[in-house]
Design a protein that fits this description.
Keywords: ATP-binding, Cell membrane, Membrane, Nucleotide-binding, Transport. 35% of the residues lie in helices and 26% in strands. The chain is an alpha/beta fold. The strands form 2 sheets. It has a 6-stranded mixed sheet with strand order 6-7-8-3-9-10, with helices on both faces. It has a 4-stranded antiparallel sheet with strand order 2-1-4-5, covered by helices on one side. Helix 3 crosses helix 4 (123-132), helix 3 (96-107) runs parallel beside helix 5 and helix 4 (123-132) crosses helix 5. It binds adenosine-5'-diphosphate and magnesium ion. Magnesium ion is lined by residues 43-44.
Length: 246
């Protein structure tokens, strides 16, 4: 598979604190890459530089060769970098399918004031997206009545509406029971393989990371200390030190 995301020399300080320090890695299309590390390691800061919420002090971030650093978040989103949030966000009073139709409106550059027409907008495409996340049976229910795991599925469909090449997921399974968590990750993995999507995700549960990630990168105090397939990382001495203090 081709290289989708290439990060080199990425650096960001807050005051005197180097939150991200000369970090480099690559992510291929069709790959599920986990970014792990203890609290404060620099995971969210890295994410926020990739999606443009934060400006890097130094380094480059390229999507299929195109430089993203310095571009506005909206432009980066247009180029194909999608994201989901740690706390799933949908419009509770709207139905599942309306939420996806609204995302399609936005992806089509229709302005938000046209939201009233969302009810008619690309209903079949919205249904196709809901089929991909297994939410067709709940299409006409308001999001406010859904179980949390189902809201996360809708959120995935919303992110897919813009046809991202790269999806950033910051702790996608936070607050989920093990069964929901496994379902969400299995679904994500399937989307990655079916669509050739690249996914960069952070995750606290090592069970999830080892079960689903194709590859891991490990940050500690802003530095990339290890990278490789799950089995190699688990026994890596630096990772043992950071996680278990051995
Ligand atoms: P992680 O997501 O791995 O827990 P973060 O990227 O949130 O880590 O934070 C990395 C470091 O940068 C921490 O020391 C944190 O306190 C600091 N930091 C993060 N965001 C800010 C900010 N907006 N202002 C000041 N310091 C920040
Ligand atoms: Mg974080």
């Amino acid at each position: 598979m081709s290289v989708l995301l290439q990060v080199q020399g990425l650096t960001k300080s807050f005051g005197g604190n180097r939150a991200v320090d000369d970090v480099g890695f690559e992510l291929k299309a069709g790959e599920l890459l986990a970014l792990i590390g203890p609290n404060g390691a620099g995971k969210s800061t890295t994410f926020n530089m990739v999606n443009g919420q934060l400006r890097a002090d130094a380094g480059s971030i390229r999507l299929e060769g195109q430089e993203l650093t310095g571009l506005a978040p909206r432009r980066i989103w247009r180029l194909g970098v999608g994201r989901t949030f740690q706390i799933a966000e949908t419009f509770g009073s709207m139905t599942v399918i309306q939420n996806v139709q609204l995302a399609l409106l936005s992806a089509d550059r229709k302005v938000f004031s046209f939201w009233r027409s969302a009810a008619d907008h690309r209903r079949d495409d919205a249904l196709a997206l809901l089929a991909q996340v297994g939410m067709v049976p709940q299409a006409d229910r308001p999001c406010s009545v859904l179980a949390y795991g189902d809201i996360k599925r809708v959120e995935l469909a919303i992110a897919l509406a813009n046809q991202p090449k790269l999806l950033l997921m910051d702790e996608p399974t936070a607050g989920m029971a093990p069964k929901e968590r496994n379902e969400l990750m299995a679904l994500t993995k399937q989307l990655v393989k079916d669509r050739g999507l690249g996914v960069l995700f952070t995750e606290h549960s090592m069970d999830v990371v080892f079960a689903y990630a194709d590859r891991l990168i490990v940050l500690a105090r802003g530095k990339l200390i290890a990278e490789g397939p799950p089995l190699l990382i688990r026994d890596h001495p630096k990772v043992q030190e950071v996680y278990f203090g051995t």
